[in-house]
Amino acid sequence: MKIFLVLLSIITLYPIVGLPQVPGVYALNETLDKNTDCYIYLFPSGLYEIRVEEHLPYKWISEIEISYGSYTLKNGEIEFSDKYNGFKMLFGYRDNYMIAKKTFKWMLNKKFVKATKYHITGDAIFTLEKIESLNQERIKFQRLHKQKTPFESGVYGNSQGFSYNLRSDNIYKITYKKIVLSEGIWYRIGNELVLKDNTLKHFFYILIDRKNLVSKFLAGIPGTEEDGLLFKNFKEQRSP
């Protein structure tokens, strides 16, 4: 989880004159939850970031990254290629707005409108070459954890506001605060939980450590090694 001042370093107010048509900041034209919005950042280099941002008091912003990677525009459609989990999303593109056609359920058929008062002056804050291959990370984990670790279905969460409901009938739901990010089925292979998103038709992974779970669901989880940790009955343990 990252906290930023509302004035992000990569965006400045600037008159839109003679800029390329596609790059820019696209905002979901509806609010996800109270003070919570979703933005797609398209950089001139062909990289992108999708963020959910919560506006906090004193002009602070709390955000998670839903996806980052590269994008291409062809025949009126933008294809997003996620560089962390490897899934692809498809958006229809028209003059200064996009419609989600293939993505997570909560984004499906939603409209993202270009914010014309913003101009991206920099590039993405990540480089594709430095992102560790998720497959390599999973293989390394399985090699170091050959003995099967006990696991119980139930609700897992963390202080970021994530809740993972892994039901005993192999149905799962992942929420961020009140936003349902992903739903589908799950099953276990070794010390790994495999999650298949019903709408995106893609597999995500959770690693079963000795004392907790380690989420590999999204690019923004973990932002640091500790951010990916999930604890059983997290909310219940901390309720008054």
Explain what the structure shows.
The chain is mainly beta and 240 residues long. The chain has two domains: 2-130, Lipocalin (Beta Barrel); 134-237. 6% of the residues lie in helices and 48% in strands. The chain has two helices and 19 strands. The protein has helices at residues 134-144, 234-237, and strands spanning 2-5, 11-13, 24-28, 36-42, 47-56, 60-74, 77-82, 88-94, 97-102, 111-114, 118-120, 154-157, 162-166, 171-176, 179-189, 192-197, 203-208, 213-216, 229-232. An eight-stranded antiparallel barrel has the order 3-4-5-6-7-8-9-10. An eight-stranded antiparallel barrel has the order 12-13-14-15-16-17-18-19. A hairpin with a 2-residue loop joins strand 15 and strand 16. It is globular. It starts with a strand and ends with a helix. Residues 1-20 and 236-240 have low confidence and may be disordered.
